[in-house]
Design a protein that fits this description.
With 382 residues, the protein is mostly helical. It has one domain. The protein has helices spanning 54-72, 79-109, 113-120, 126-138, 143-155, 160-169, 175-185, 187-213, 232-242, 247-281, 284-289, 295-307, 312-324, 329-341, 344-354, 357-380. It starts with 53 loop residues before the first helix and ends with a helix. The relative contact order is 0.13.
Length: 382
Amino acid sequence: MHNPSSPNCEATEKHTSDCHMPSGESPERTSGCCEAPAETSCCPSESKGRSFDWLLWGSLALCALMYGIGFTLTDHNDWLGIISHSVQELINMMWWSVLLAIAVVGLLSQVPQTFVMSVLGKGGSKRGLLRATLAGVLLDLCSHGILAVGMELRRKGASLGQVMAFLIASPWNSLSLTLIMIALIGLSWTLAFIALSMIIALISGWLFDRLEQRGILPANPASNELPENFRFWPEAKQQLAAVQWNRELFQTMMRSGLSGSRMVIKWLLFGVLLASAIRGFVSLEDFQTYFGPSLMGLAATLVAATIIEVCSEGSTPIAADLMNRAQAPGNSFAFLMTGVATDYTEVMVIKDTMNSWKTALFLPLLTVPQVIVVAIILNAGV
């Protein structure tokens, strides 16, 4: 871990390369000196010239207003009652995951880049992709909480393929949701969904790495090769022994976690408002009526998954309903996976973090066709 009193901004890491970008490229936020709260020689202060974030504070104010209104209304039949109670429901579902994500991002911000990359493995390699996919499956966070962690991994030097594999594999493959899925749709279907999502994550990650290596998509300026003869456990023991566990360290971690998660929280709050508005004015039952195991049902599922913005906890019971009521396992799988691939929160966070619309739009472009093929095969077996 970093020692907060260190004046050298993790001098052992090669940050100077991050601060001198070729002309025409937009630098991504990286670890080290560029994350310091004060202005450094290579990174200008972020506080200078920052405009008021209307989307963040406007969404926060509206969510707070609707959350409060929900306590005064008992009628769920009119649009205001549905929207306010939907805001309450979604926030109550995901608040713990967002707080946990802030804590994880804050912790990662204090971990040297070499340790993160040694765990994830070499970017662009099959082993690196497999490790990133397994990390996404095992980490118990919802799709919005996982975004903050994924973007921090990117800032720590993970390849584009590793980040995408991590994001695609993770949203509903947590331990808690896996247990819920087993209860809702059975063990066999749950294991099948997990295996298929991991395959799609690995294929998509491999494609993203190839596009990054060929220069079609921008490379990560924070990428860094591990030093020769690097040994994780001896280095970790040495670093941990030097850490000063004091209030200043935890305050630094909290500030870094909030700063690194700010972009995700902004789009998450906006997504809560949009999803609640859709629930208030569009009946979900109207979608579910047409979600049978047909091409039209699959098309309706893809449209609904794109429009309905819910976290993984919210999408799981809907997916189970598609399996049990509509008898459409392919639609159930497509709703879970397409909701992630076409999630505008995820697309916009990727765009803002990586300064690339092309990278963000390649997420649905590469993943949705795979999901459709798998969904058709699953529905054909019914």
